[in-house]
Amino acid sequence: MTPGRDEATPYPAPFLFTHSHQTCMNDHQKTFGVVPGLNMGLFAPDDLKRIIDIINRYEVPMTKITSAQRLALLGMDTNEQKQLLTELTPLLRPQPDNGVNYVQACPGNQWCKYGVSDSLKLGAELEKLSFDEPLPAKVKIGVAGCRMCCTEARVRDIGVIAGKKGWTLIFGGNGGNNARIGDVVAEGLTDEQVISLIRKCLDYYRHNARRTMRTARFMEINGIEKLKQAVLDSI
Ligand code: SF4
């Protein structure tokens, strides 16, 4: 049976209200943007219609889907942005205060013929991660439902890639100017094991990295073996 939207995935849910909503997006032109998150790129058509209605009424100069699977509404002056936000805010839910910048996930085995695991289900669980104290720097997560790795999980702070024997966990990747492919922490993991191990890796990172240090730079100094010794004892 082909899964329907509701039975297949607990999403789409309302848009996330991301932390970057009040950023001056263009310092040169002094224009502002609003960046609602899309919960791993998923949306309900009715939610999107309501946002498009707002975009049209405010004649937002530029709208874009970002590489992080979010919407970007760009090019407003500060008053337009504030008014738009008052209308948009009731449609959004706050981003969890967990230090995770975003979770990208591909369609996975529910919707893609190559998928071997349910990346949307795992991604939804990872969006709920929470920590008692802030992480040292932003953390981006990519979840891929097969080795083709459409979510670029090997260059995310945390990458999770499905294989026939379970999930592979990657830590310390970065796709920026100083790019780095992350290190493999463990393979053949269940959903529960990979979530638990991600929490341990992030706790270790939180306790040992200095503030603002991204996972890639931390791993260059720290090394994968130390991380493994710290987190692999009890999975
Ligand atoms: S990573 Fe694999 S399962 Fe996910 S969208 Fe790409 S091909 Fe499909």
**Helix-strand string:** HEEEEHEEHEEHEEEEHHH
Query: How does the overall form come out from the CA principal axes?
Result: globular
**Name of the CATH first level of the largest domain:** Alpha Beta
In CATH, the homologous superfamily of the largest domain goes by the name Sulfite Reductase Hemoprotein, domain 1
List the domain count as a whole number: 2
**Which radius of gyration do the C-alpha atoms yield?**
19 Å
Main sheet overview: 5 strands, mixed
Mean pLDDT: 87
Bound molecules: iron/sulfur cluster
Main β-sheet, spatial strand arrangement: 8-9-10-11-12
Uncertain parts:
1-5
* Approximate strand percentage: 15-25%
Q: Report how far apart the termini are.
A: 35 Å
Please name the CATH architecture of the largest domain.
2-Layer Sandwich
What's the helical proportion of residues? 25-40%
Structural class: alpha/beta
Task: Compute the number of helices.
Answer: 7
- The number of distinct β-strands equals 12
Structure explained in plain terms:
- By secondary structure, the protein is α/β, with parallel strands linked by helices.
- The protein folds into two domains: 7-94, Alpha-Beta Plaits (2-Layer Sandwich), CATH 3.30.70; 100-231, Sulfite Reductase Hemoprotein, domain 1 (2-Layer Sandwich).
- 30% of the residues lie in helices and 24% in strands.
- It has seven helices and twelve strands.
- It has a five-stranded mixed beta sheet. A four-stranded antiparallel beta sheet has the order 2-3-6-5.
- Strand 10 and strand 11 (166-171) form a beta hairpin.
- The protein is globular and about 55 Å long.
- The model is unreliable at 1-5 (pLDDT under 50).
- The chain binds iron/sulfur cluster.
